[in-house]
Design a protein that fits this description.
Number of strands: 5
Largest sheet: 3 strands, antiparallel
Structural class: mainly alpha
Helix content: 55-70%
Shape: globular
Strand content: under 5%
Distance between the termini: 62 Å
Oligomer: single chain
Number of helices: 15
Length: 405
């Protein structure tokens, strides 16, 4: 319900372009209805069958990631989408679910009394290498998000702490290396001066190198890092709203909420934020609903994580417990990313707010994740009921035996 209200309010740009006030929200409601349909189908699938989907999803994810790398559609400088039957979707969304499924299966299959077997760590890293590296080329924030969830699942799955510690050390070295490459090969376009034709030709020749092809998003990454790390105060009259429009108008939306908010549908900054209905919808929620609305939305994700923890705790087997926690951590961690960006505590990442932002495949796949969690919940509740019936039957038999004696 929050998604429908806020997306309808934040879609003023789309209504202006299409000349139809109802078109964007009708499309969004249709996507939500499709997501609910997928969720209902998924929750009726028995948990044991999810294991069978793992190799097929891994193959599909890897294939589509290769296709998007070679011939994918580019939007806002990022080549993340492929088109199927006229509909665009991001293969990274499939890859995230496939990776969590695979890791849950590895951790559950290699559990011992003292925790996960040491070989589980190696197998997880092999699968992660095939999934994370292709995503990182075009969507670094999603790759970082997925890596965080993988490590958290390792901790939950009781992978040896020494192995996790070594992995964290290697990751820190790799992050420093990637950071250095970005700062060397990237160009901060916000500080760039106009070039002559000869200089433009030199830049184009430079960009033809193999490293530049891999790090062709380095310019965007460097600009975002510089903006986030800069502590220089800019006077209001000197601020360039054209170059820093998203961050600037997001800050204005939050500041103009006056704590209590302007009320649903009364946002002003939605007309200036290019991704008000997606990446920066949390800023619009704060502008319209105030601090109270922001806390309620954040609290809903906390409830989702807490309830999933309760479901995982009821599971008798390891696989459904690890799978449920992995999916919940993915949704909640992505939500935290989005909210931190909206309030200026993290650099711009382009991550939508799960189950709230306007989206196509991401919304449907997130609903499928919820369906999987509900399927696990139904299975665990059914086993509890069967166990209670069995215990009651044994108690009744024992009582009758005592009466006969």
């Amino acid at each position: 319900m929050i998604s429908i209200v806020e997306v309808y309010s934040a879609s003023s740009e789309l209504t202006y372009k299409k000349g139809n006030y109802l078109s964007p929200i009708i499309y969004h409601c249709a996507i939500l209805a499709a997501g609910l349909f997928v969720m209902v189908i998924t929750l009726n699938i028995k948990c044991k069958y999810f294991k069978l989907f793992t190799p097929f999803l891994l193959f599909l994810a890897l294939t589509t990631l290769i296709i998007v790398f070679l011939t994918g559609h580019s939007t806002n400088g990022a080549q993340r989408w492929i088109s199927v039957f006229g509909m665009q979707f991001q293969p990274s969304e499939i890859a995230k679910g496939a990776m969590i499924l695979a890791e849950a299966q590895i951790l559950s299959a290699m559990q011992t009394d003292n925790g996960a077997d040491k070989r589980a760590f190696k197998y997880i890293l092999i699968v992660a290498g095939f999934m994370v590296l292709p995503i990182a080329v075009e969507n670094l924030s999603t790759a970082v998000l997925l890596c965080m969830v993988i490590i958290m699942m390792m901790i939950i799955g009781r992978v040896p702490k020494l192995q996790i510690g070594k992995l964290m050390g290697i990751i820190m070295i790799m992050v420093a290396l990637v950071f250095a490459i970005i700062m060397i090969f990237g160009t901060d376009k916000s500080k760039e001066t106009p070039k002559t034709n000869l200089e433009e030709q030199v830049v184009q020749n430079k960009k033809s190198s193999t490293i530049e092809k891999i790090f062709h998003r380095a310019d965007t990454w460097k600009s975002r890092i510089n903006k986030f790390m800069s502590d220089k105060e800019v006077a209001p009259e000197d601020y360039d709203l054209d170059k820093d429009a998203q961050v600037a108008h997001s800050n204005i939306a939050i500041a103009s909420s006056n704590i209590v908010g302007k009320g649903p549908g009364n946002s002003v900054e939605r007309d200036f934020l290019s991704q008000a209905f997606s990446d920066f919808i949390y800023a619009i929620i704060i502008e319209e609903m105030g601090i109270e609305g922001a806390i309620i939305v954040a609290f809903l994700y906390v409830v989702l994580l807490f309830r999933t923890g309760r479901i995982a705790n009821r599971c008798e087997n390891n696989f459904p417990a690890f799978l449920a926690m992995g999916l919940a951590l993915m949704l909640v961690t992505q939500a935290i990313f989005n909210m931190l960006v909206a309030v200026g505590l993290a650099p711009v990442t382009g991550q939508p707010l799960p189950l709230v932002s306007k989206g196509g495949t991401s919304t449907i796949i997130n609903c499928a994740y919820i369906g999987v969690i509900l399927s696990i919940s139904r299975s665990s509740v059914k086993r509890e009921d069967e166990k209670e019936i069995s215990d009651d039957s044994q108690t009744e038999v024992k009582r009758n035996s005592q009466i006969c004696e």
